[in-house]
Specification:
It contains four helices and no strands. The chain has helices at about 5-20, 35-40, 40-55, 70-80.
C-alpha cells in the first residue's frame, strides 16, 4: 500500500475516532490512548466500532475493541479486516 493511501486511512480513522470521542480531529494524535488521554468509555468504543464498520463496510468483532486503543492501533486492526496491504 502506498504511503499516501495509508496516510489517508489514518486521517479517516482519526476523524471517525474524534467524532466518537466528541473531540476535534487535530486534538487526537496517532498514539493518544482513547481512554487515558480522552476519557473514552465502552459506549464510545462501540460507537467507534459501528462508525468504522459503516465507513469501510466490514465487520469487526467486539473482541477486537481492547486492541483499538489509539488511532494507530485501530488502523492495525481495521487493516487486517479490510484487507489493506502495508
Amino acid at each position: 500500500m502506498s504511503q499516501t493511501v495509508q496516510t489517508q486511512h489514518l486521517e479517516e480513522l482519526r476523524e471517525i475516532a474524534a467524532a466518537a470521542l466528541e473531540i476535534e480531529p487535530e486534538d487526537l494524535a496517532d498514539d493518544d490512548d482513547f481512554i487515558e488521554d480522552h476519557d473514552g468509555d465502552s459506549l464510545r468504543a462501540i460507537e467507534l466500532l459501528a462508525r468504522i464498520e459503516k465507513k469501510y463496510k466490514i465487520e469487526l468483532p467486539q473482541s477486537e475493541l481492547p486492541n483499538m486503543t489509539s488511532v494507530s492501533a485501530t488502523y492495525k486492526v481495521v487493516a487486517q479486516y479490510a484487507g489493506w496491504q502495508d
